[in-house]
């Protein structure tokens, strides 16, 4: 897995978030204003109740006022109820706005990420683990959504409440207000200390989650191996450990706040005490009316609660920060292998001439070169067989043709055009590839064969199945071509899967067909049948076939023998026999003959 060195991005996290709110920014601003409004409206109740107390309940002329000015009393009451009602409506609409915007952002970024992941090159897939990628598009992305839906709202709520209450306090009695507000900077300082402690915890927490998901994903998809080795208990324990690890880290993260919480809570609780003490003195001295005191005490929570909330907000903010780091890593990732800027379109079908000129190759994460100075040419319609012992570089070599990887040296040309100059889609459209590890989709057999070209009809699908000697076993299946194969082709034998994968490669009528050990699991008789049909295809096609059996290589126009990444021998069957080298020995071995 790619390790977490903090990567720099072209935008800050919040700027990135803002960019992805495009289309909903206007309504989001309305939502934020709404949050300010409904929080300021909270102050109206204490304001009016303070007025009612002063004018109609405690003032010198309270009784008189009630008799002569009952109109005002009712007006104040109605205003109180009216503003409360208005506030409820705004809160309701506001919630809808936040939900709408956050879901829109979630949808957009998720699609964007999926697009990115889908278009990545092979190196990306060997770097990132599936479970980790899944965590990014689910859990991490949800933390981003939470930022839009809740955290930002809480920040505005806290600050507007605190700000409005502070202004209101200063307005009614500035001396009393200052006595209360002077404590608040301490809270910010504590929150700052808390942030420094909790930020690395969230980064760790996020790694643990990815780890746990990776274990689960690998074990679910690799369950056959687990069963074969009876390792269920071991795997369950391994998951249990990851799960425990995650839970413990979660707890530890929660505990960080508990260290700071008592201080914040004490400061928040100090407010009513200061209020009582200072307010009492001010009342006695006549510097504060009873109504003003009621307004203050009715609103003291508007100063204390945002302080309490700050820890929670900072916690969530750090969660967003850790998660968005992971999301943005994929968001800004670029495949190394992509269309060149000066790539030429080549919509026509290729002739199928392939040239390798001094091609060397090494995997980015590998220590040693895998291929050295490979030179060969395949003419259109020829069959080339590649053989060589396991690990000698056969698969690596053919993977260079569709540009899964880039050679470290040399050039590969198709029809005389360097493949780096072709558009990837044009290049790959012309290639039919049956990979060494067969992967089928959980779909019908027909759907699997027609994967590369969904426009072909059942007759054609059947034709390609016949070419690949698959039609017999398919027609024996209860639902024939409509049979649904399980995930990765569960329900089929190795040889059956290989033949469906061959039919799938043929079904795009490629001008270049590449078969990587595609008949290794089929019997000799069936293989012979397949070789025969490959020579009789009803479309022109250059074939590169990796095979170990002499029966396959014998009929090739050219055989390349690879050894440790070098082409050791090249020529026709007869030429290579005459050389009495590796190939000759292999034929002797396979035929059991003493001499040839
Ligand atoms: P096979 O299929 O067992 O007959 O073997 P080949 O000839 O297809 O071997 P190949 O090309 O898969 O591997 C050649 C060497 O490259 C071998 O030492 C393993 C290494 N290799 C293969 N794939 C990767 C990869 O994705 N990353 C790294 N770093 N090395 C790889
Ligand atoms: Mg291979």
Give an account of the 3D structure.
Pfam families: ABC_membrane (PF00664), ABC_tran (PF00005). It is a multi-pass membrane protein. It is found in: Cell membrane. There is one protein chain. The chain has 596 residues and is an alpha/beta fold. The chain is 62% helix and 9% strand. It folds into two domains: 13-331, Up-down Bundle (ABC transporter transmembrane region fold), CATH 1.20.1560.10; 348-430 and 546-596, P-loop containing nucleotide triphosphate hydrolases (Rossmann fold), CATH 3.40.50.300. The protein has helices at residues 13-19, 25-41, 44-58, 62-68, 70-118, 122-127, 130-172, 174-181, 184-221, 223-228, 232-284, 290-299, 301-331, 394-399, 424-429, 445-449, 458-467, 471-476, 494-506, 524-535, 550-553, 573-579, 582-591, and strands at residues 354-361, 371-378, 383-387, 409-414, 417-418, 431-434, 512-516, 542-546, 558-563, 566-571. It has a six-stranded mixed beta sheet with strand order 6-7-8-3-9-10. Strands 2-1-4-5 form a four-stranded antiparallel beta sheet, with no helix packed on it. Strand 4 (409-414) and strand 5 form a beta hairpin. Bound molecules: 2'-deoxyguanosine-5'-triphosphate and magnesium ion. 2'-deoxyguanosine-5'-triphosphate is lined by residues 126, 363, 365-366, 370, 388, 390-396, 436.
Outline of the structure:
The protein is an alpha/beta fold and 596 residues long. It has 23 helices and 10 strands. Keywords: ATP-binding, Cell membrane, Membrane, Nucleotide-binding, Transmembrane, Transmembrane helix, Transport.
């Amino acid at each position: 897995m790619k390790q977490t060195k903090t990567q720099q991005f072209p935008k800050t996290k919040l700027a990135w978030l803002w960019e992805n709110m495009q289309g909903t920014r206007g309504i989001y601003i309305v939502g934020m204003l709404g949050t300010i409004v409904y929080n300021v409206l909270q102050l109206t109740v204490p304001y009016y109740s303070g007025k009612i107390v002063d004018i109609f309940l405690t003032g010198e002329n309270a009784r008189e006022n009630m008799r002569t000015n009952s109109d005002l009393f009712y007006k104040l009451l109605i205003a109180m109820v009216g503003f409360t009602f208005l506030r409820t409506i705004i809160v309701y609409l506001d919630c809808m706005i936040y939900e709408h915007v956050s879901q829109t952002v979630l949808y957009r970024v998720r699609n964007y990420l999926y697009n990115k992941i889908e278009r990545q090159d092979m190196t990306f897939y060997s770097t990132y683990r599936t479970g980790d990628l899944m965590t990014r598009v689910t859990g991490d992305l949800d933390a981003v959504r939470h930022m839009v839906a809740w955290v930002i709202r809480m920040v505005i709520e806290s600050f507007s409440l605190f700000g409005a209450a502070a202004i209101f306090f200063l307005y009614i009695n500035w001396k009393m207000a200052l006595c209360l507000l002077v404590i608040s900077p301490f809270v910010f300082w504590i929150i700052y200390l808390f942030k420094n402690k909790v930020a690395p915890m969230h980064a760790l927490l996020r790694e643990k989650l990815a780890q746990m998901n990776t274990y689960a994903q690998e074990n679910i998809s690799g369950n056959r191996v687990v069963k074969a080795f009876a390792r269920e208990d071991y795997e369950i324990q391994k998951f249990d450990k990851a799960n425990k690890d995650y839970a413990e880290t979660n707890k530890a993260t929660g505990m960080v706040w508990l260290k700071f919480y008592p201080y914040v809570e004490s400061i928040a609780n100090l407010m009513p005490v200061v209020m009582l003490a200072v307010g009492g003195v001010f009342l006695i001295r006549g510097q504060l009316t009873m109504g003003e005191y009621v307004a203050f005490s009715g609103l003291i929570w508007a100063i204390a609660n945002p302080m309490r909330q700050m820890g929670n907000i900072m916690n969530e903010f750090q969660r967003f920060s850790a998660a968005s780091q992971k999301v943005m890593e994929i968001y800004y990732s670029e495949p190394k292998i992509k269309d060149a800027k000066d790539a030429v379109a080549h919509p026509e079908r290729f002739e199928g001439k392939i040239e390798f000129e001094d091609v060397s190759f090494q995997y980015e994460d590998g220590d040693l070169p895998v291929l050295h100075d490979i030179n060969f040419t395949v003419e259109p319609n020829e069959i080339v067989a590649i053989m060589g012992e396991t690990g000698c570089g056969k698969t690596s070599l053919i993977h260079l043709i569709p540009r899964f990887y880039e050679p470290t040296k040399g050039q590969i040309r198709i029809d005389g055009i360097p493949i780096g100059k072709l558009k990837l889609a044009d290049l790959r459209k012309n290639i039919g590839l049956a990979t060494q590890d067969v992967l089928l989709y959980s779909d019908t057999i027909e759907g699997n064969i027609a994967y590369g070209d969904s426009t072909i009809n059942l007759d054609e699908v059947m034709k390609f199945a016949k070419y690949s000697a698959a039609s017999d076993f398919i027609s024996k299946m209860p639902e024939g071509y409509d049979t649904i194969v399980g995930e990765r082709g569960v329900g089929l034998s190795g040889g059956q899967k290989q033949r469906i994968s061959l039919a799938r490669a043929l079904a795009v009528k490629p001008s270049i067909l590449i078969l990587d050990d595609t008949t290794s699991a089929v019997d000799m008789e069936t293989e012979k049948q397949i070789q025969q049909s490959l020579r009789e295809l009803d479309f022109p096609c250059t074939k590169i076939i990796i095979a170990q059996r002499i029966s396959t290589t014998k009929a090739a126009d050219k055989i390349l023998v690879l050894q440790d990444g070098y082409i050791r021998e090249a020529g026709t069957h007869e030429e290579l026999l005459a050389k009495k080298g590796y190939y000759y020995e292999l034929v002797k071995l396979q035929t059991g003959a003493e001499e040839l």
